[in-house]
Predict the structure.
Amino acid sequence: MGYLVGVTALWAFSFSLIGVYLAGQVDSYFAVLLRVSLAMLIFLPFLRPSLLRGKQRLALMALGAVQLGVMYTFFYQSFLLLSVPEVLLFTIFTPIYIALLDDLLFGRFTPIYIVTALLAVIGAGVIRYDGIDSGFWTGFLVVQGANLCFALGQVGYRRLAADLPPTLAWHNVFGWFFIGAMIVALPAYLLFGNSAALPSTPVQWGVLAWLGLVASGVGYFAWNQGATKVDAGTLAIMNNALVPAGLIVNLVIWNRDADIPRLVIGALIMAASLWLNHWWCQRRQTAPAS
């Protein structure tokens, strides 16, 4: 849980940095490529190919390609089809996908995860809902593609970790994750990138360096590690904790407008979903075996 809370705080700052210094100024495909490249460079020196079999390496690369490469491709395209409030609103369905995919991959059905995930969606919706314009269905589907990729990457990582030794040194294999993301990010930039919209100021380069080395490199490693240490319900809920966290950071540092009552109400609903999930997990652990 500590991993997820820490990365939530980390990524809350990242969204504001992107919105203030990069969005509409730096080519998004280049930003993704540089972030993935820098993150990959962190882990390449630690890479020990012998620790994983060929299929396991390919699985980790595929997870990186989906969770980062394909997800970002969908995500940045959605801004061409929707307003920013609509994009943020439609990302709140990720917890439901996590709950469903986790049950599917682990061969079970856990209704409480669906309930708590829906509560997390409602809480995030209270915070982020700003109305919807007509003609948004294509954009809605594109955002859901991004949500599914992010959810599948997290749940797939949980499933892969369950089949590997608990003593595995993940920092010695995580480079494969970013290599997989690079396989998507590099062709995407070569095909769709705009070389005339590269970073032009030291601040923009600095923000990209921080996003690549810290937010992507440290962030995705810690987030996926956290995903293996909590139940699916907690993971689903924490995916929407970024909404209030991001708004608080934006309000305190950049003084952007925020609806404080809605922020508080939505955060309380999400906290209630986390409490309900924790209560159910505790009850299941203490229940006598039948």
In short: The two ends are 30 Å apart (CA to CA). Residues 11 and 215 are 6 Å apart (CA to CA).
